[in-house]
Amino acid sequence: MKRGFFYKMSVGVVTEKSVTFNTELRLDSGRILGPITQVYETYGNLNKDASNAILVAHAWTGSAHLAGKHREEDTRVGWWDAIVGPGRLLDSDKYYIICINVIGSCYGSTGPSSINPKTGKKYNLTFPVITVRDMVRAQAMLLDHLGIRKLKAVIGGSMGGMQALEWGTQFPDRVSSIIALAVTPAPPPQAISLNAVARWAIFNDPTWKKGGYRKNPKDGLALARGIGHITFLSGESMESKFGRRFSARDGQFDFFGRFEVERYLNYNGYNFVDKFDANSFLYLAKALDLYNVAFGYDSIEEALDRISCPLQFFAFSSDWLYPPKDTEEMVHVLEKLGKKVEYNLIDSPYGHDAFLLEHETFSPQIKGFLEREG
Amino acid sequence: MKRGFFYKMSVGVVTEKSVTFNTELRLDSGRILGPITQVYETYGNLNKDASNAILVAHAWTGSAHLAGKHREEDTRVGWWDAIVGPGRLLDSDKYYIICINVIGSCYGSTGPSSINPKTGKKYNLTFPVITVRDMVRAQAMLLDHLGIRKLKAVIGGSMGGMQALEWGTQFPDRVSSIIALAVTPAPPPQAISLNAVARWAIFNDPTWKKGGYRKNPKDGLALARGIGHITFLSGESMESKFGRRFSARDGQFDFFGRFEVERYLNYNGYNFVDKFDANSFLYLAKALDLYNVAFGYDSIEEALDRISCPLQFFAFSSDWLYPPKDTEEMVHVLEKLGKKVEYNLIDSPYGHDAFLLEHETFSPQIKGFLEREG
């Protein structure tokens, strides 16, 4: 085995951890949530003064399984394995890397499919509406538990980037640097409208039963995910991936005949049904749409002025869900406030998904930023 | 009444006409359709040599009711009333203006909700898949019936623009000029993907019953239309129309609380259910997606070289459904072929819908074109 290859190896087999806090968290909605379980994974070792921790925040349907495998025989690795591991961008020989499943999700942390201890039944729609800020408040409890006072960095894309921003505004003394990719200070109405029709697709499914299903509402959730995939891609990437090709198995003049892009959305939609809970999908979609970095402040200036650490942003030219111009507006505000901020517009055809696909493009910049500011 | 106002008056009360052809039309799919009923409206008078006819082609969910009212007491006028009437852009004192409901639609012309005379039952999904070219073939039969050999112009936006192009390639000796707005030589995969999820929304509705419903499948069709509305608007127009405002009646932290844009999509979606047949929606969505000006030819050059009259195109800067660049590519091909072609890119925030909203912007150019070329 070559040294170079060996050096940049995977984190290997990892084990999910879990902790439950018998506390009550007051949410942005004014409601109370507790107890709170959070599932997380860590890679590398926390140093003596607990100063080498990096929090990686996941997106909408992500999980704490950031890197490595759960079992040797797994064929798939964690969602951002490409940049996490010994010698990789987020070097587990150097950093203690943490990824926490957000509250509201369905991958172990408390969410609508969890049992409400007060009733002995699933929360379902009695689960409170949560915000990205609520997620971050819960994460701060977990970091206290791990003995981490201050993070070297928080990094994330999309909803992960929103969490990074919330760390900056809500816990300015607990974070040394922020790296946010494909983020927005507040989703524009077009992004909201696309999540709205995705929600509607689930509401329309009679097997959803106002959230009281036993089995995930298959058709509605698959369609909702199909709509999501449209927003993750771009016109450009659809052109090169599918063009106007017709599905090889279907007849062009069959009523149910499908274009290749249609087949792709169907396939990925139904594939998702076994992976993600419909109610979690709805609650997190809502958290995304409600996201506003300025929530609770008189202005975006007042909100962003709370941040005291350097920030690095990445936007992607073909991301039409969270368009670069919205990141740029936020960067201008930060610059005016005299914050240390770096902005990178990556020319990419991959749309919103670019933050997961363009890691070879942005890794050198993140590496430099972490070395300078982390 | 002032002269100026009087001069640019409405066509007033108009009556729908209908004709049934006891013929069999061979479709692009190879299947046969017949008899064929077509509903149409006309405004103005055909002159002696039948040389003043203009065909206006409607879009997806449009009808033959182009201008005026059906009854004096109607509060709404035809879909493009703003440009049709005495002294208006399409001057009914000068031209004989015709608008024909396309086959496949539900406003009187033969479509999936028509009775199949061979079975005595509604066609539903036994209706053949039709193409825009098929629609135009049926229209040519109607023009024969009206004694119109050659049209002064064919004008239309979106699917109406596609029909205008098909007139040019299929009946080059029967049209003197083509005016196409917000058109595309073939919808790009992103546009197809958005129609695909709209179709999926109807398929998911159990009351659709594989097209065999008695009552329009309400929830599925409303959602499909909601998705459509996203594609008709632009990010820009959504910003100014809705921004991130929350519906005044809903609580921000209510699970079913809606953003204003969400409420708009809901409202317009459910409003549509009483207006349009779900199966027609599906068949016409398919015709849109299948549309390819080059269908059946070796190249787009071969197809467009069949056109022998001048063409005028309008594209709208914020139309992301049928992006201006696709119109521009077609214009370049036409220019290379030595065709007389005029291209206008209108800077507009209204997205695809601009072809219905920007008439004050494009009317002078169309007027000039008609005077020169019509």
In short:
Two copies of one chain form a homodimer. Chain A is an alpha/beta fold.
How much helical structure, as a percent, in the residues of chain A? 25-40%
**Mean pLDDT score of chain A:** 96
Low-confidence stretches of chain A: 1-6
Quick one: overall form of chain A? globular
SS strand fraction of chain A: 5-15%
Largest interface: A-B, 56 and 56 residues
Radius of gyration of chain A equals 21 Å
Structure in words:
- The structure is a homodimer of 374-residue chains.
- The longest helix of chain A is centred in the middle third of the chain and has 16 residues, at 189-204.
- Chain A starts with a helix and ends with a helix.
- Helices cover 36% and strands 15% of the residues of chain A.
- In chain A, strand 9 (115-116) and strand 10 form a beta hairpin.
- The first copy, chain A, contains twelve helices and 14 strands.
- Chain A is globular, with a radius of gyration of 21 Å.
- The interface between A and B is large, with 56 and 56 residues.
Helices and strands in order, then pairings?
The structure is a homodimer of 374-residue chains.
Chain A lengths: L2 H5 L9 E5 L3 E2 L5 E2 L2 E8 L9 E5 L26 E2 L4 E2 L4 E5 L14 E2 L4 E2 L9 H15 L6 E5 L1 H12 L7 E4 L7 H16 L13 H15 L2 H7 L18 H13 L5 H13 L9 H5 L6 E6 L7 H13 L4 E6 L7 H4 L1 H15 L1
Parallel strand pairs in A: 5-8, 5-11, 6-7, 11-12, 12-13, 13-14
Antiparallel strand pairs in A: 1-4, 2-3, 4-8, 9-10
Helix pairs in contact in A: 2-3, 4-5, 4-8, 5-7
